[in-house]
């Protein structure tokens, strides 16, 4: 099946700086890559996603880039704010087997220091 | 309001008990999922369903079972709880067709003594 690796596991940045989280996947057939933000004690919430026919997508301070050849995708947060502090998960949707399993990365705990 | 609900939110039980974690969604989604997640750690897929009377096992074998008799309801049952089952259980749902977002429930935090 699909294998998603996520780095780094923890990340601390100063408020206003940028944060980058990277994920790699193994299954070239995966075609959908969402990013979820999970605040302490709360449910994961989708913040941005990208489909395999697109190389980059941006939504205000958040952007995601996808390199299908290298099988990696990255989350970029600019002008970070303390409320960006959370655990971020990447995921890849695999088309193998029954065709709709999501495989999640191990998470990145982001701390934005005021 | 369309949402996905889980009950109970917190549960502390003794070893050997049978428990059922409830998940309901009012979004009309066909696809539903159960994940196990230790705090701040990755999500592991336990079971999923593409619709009524459809259930599949995920990669994580958790000695649990699910049923999907109604579209909106996807309960998870542990026949005999063990301390190793202590974790958070997240239910999710997704609209059918194509690559789309999964919506998560608030989770059930289970502690087995």
Number of DSSP E strands of chain B: 11
pLDDT averaged over residues of chain B: 92
Percentage of helical residues of chain A? under 10%
Gyration radius of chain B, in Å? 13 Å
Largest sheet of chain A: 6 strands, mixed
Which structural class should the secondary elements of chain B be placed in?
mainly beta
Main sheet summary of chain B: 7 strands, mixed
Written description of the protein model:
The complex is a heterodimer of chains A (114) and B (113). Helices cover 0% and strands 57% of the residues of chain A. Chain A is mainly β and 114 residues long. The model of chain A has no long low-confidence stretch (mean pLDDT 93). Chain B is mostly beta strands. Helices cover 0% and strands 50% of the residues of chain B. Chains A and B meet through strand 4, strand 5, strand 9 and strand 10 of A and strand 5 and strand 10 of B.
Short description:
The complex is a heterodimer of chains A (114) and B (113). Chain A is mainly β.
Keywords:
heterodimer, A: 114 residues, mainly beta, B: 113 residues, four-stranded antiparallel β-sheet
List the helices and strands and how they pair.
The complex is a heterodimer of chains A (114) and B (113).
Chain A lengths: L3 E4 L2 E5 L4 E7 L6 E7 L6 E7 L4 E4 L2 E6 L4 E6 L8 E9 L6 E4 L3 E6 L1
Parallel strand pairs in A: 2-11
Antiparallel strand pairs in A: 1-3, 3-8, 4-5, 4-9, 6-7, 7-8, 9-10, 9-11
Chain B lengths: L3 E4 L2 E4 L5 E7 L5 E7 L5 E9 L2 E4 L6 E3 L9 E3 L8 E8 L8 E2 L3 E5 L1
Parallel strand pairs in B: 2-11
Antiparallel strand pairs in B: 1-3, 3-8, 4-5, 4-9, 5-6, 7-8, 9-10, 9-11
